[in-house]
Amino acid sequence: MIFSANIAFLWTDRPFLERFAAARAAGFTVVEFHDQAQLEGPQVVREALGDLTVAGINAHMGETAGVAAIPGREAEARAQIAEAIAAARTVGAAAVHVVSGVTQDADRHRRLADRLAEAAADAPDLTLLVEPLCEAAKPGYAVNSVEEASRVVRLSGAPNVKIMFDCFHVQRQSGDVLTRFRDHFDEIGHVQIAGGLTRQEPDRGELDYAFLLPAFVEAGYTGAFGCEYTPATTVEAGLGWRDVFTRPTGSAAG
């Protein structure tokens, strides 16, 4: 198993560019983050990465957690997605998460699917991700459930448009995480983990990753598991969960 350190959540007591060294020192070989590549400058981020691999980045988030599904902001969405694709190529990211935005407009899923389809055609070398965010964490977000994300993927009609399957959000919104993972396996492009309810380390809360992670692998998942959680104290103090849940050879981080 490979674990990807989400440095938008981890080591937030340090300047962003210093978090790469912290991830490397903690044994991670893969990282992911939000829209910091665009904010910091893609080339600067590329240099700070060193030998780390980037699983994925986000399009610009802003005050509305993206704009791709919001009516009247189509041109802005296209520009932000294009910027994210360019940044992803500079930093070597494998995927771009196209953040949907806060809207309950009736055509939000079609609008988002259209932006994803355009991006997928422009960037066939990248995976374009849509993530459902639970209502409790992001009220009014355009995509709340795995089922809604699946509808967007199907509407896009693009083979490189996939679901970002964040176990925390799936559990809070719908529950039955493993069944939903299996039902939508062919549409899933990336998995993120965090403790259920707490959103702290994966060994805290109601989600049993000692059961889920091997089950995901058994189902055929070969990608990195994104560690998008808020540490209870320091990152280093809580990293023992990696050895509890898995017994990998070599580095505990993958």
Commentary on this structure:
By secondary structure, the chain is α/β, with parallel strands linked by helices. It has a single domain (3-245), classed as Alpha-Beta Barrel (TIM Barrel), CATH 3.20.20.150. It is 39% helix and 14% strand. An eight-stranded parallel beta barrel has the order 1-2-3-4-5-6-7-8, surrounded by four helices. Helix 3 runs parallel beside helix 4 (74-91), helix 4 (74-91) runs parallel beside helix 5 (108-122) and helix 8 packs parallel to helix 9. The protein is globular. Residues 248-254 have low confidence and may be disordered.
CATH level 1 class label: Alpha Beta
State the helix count. 11
Number of domains: 1
- Name the CATH homologous superfamily: Divalent-metal-dependent TIM barrel enzymes
- Please give the largest β-sheet: 8 strands, parallel, barrel
Q: Indicate the mean pLDDT.
A: 95
Radius of gyration: 17 Å
Question: What CATH architecture do you see?
Answer: Alpha-Beta Barrel
Order of helices and strands: EHEHHEHEHEHEHHEHEHH
C-alpha termini separation: 6 Å
- Beta-strand residue percentage: 5-15%
Shape: globular
Helix content: 25-40%
Structural class: alpha/beta
- Poorly predicted runs: 248-254
CATH topology: TIM Barrel
Main features:
alpha/beta; TIM Barrel; disordered C terminus; 254 residues; 8-stranded parallel barrel; 14% strand; 39% helix; single chain
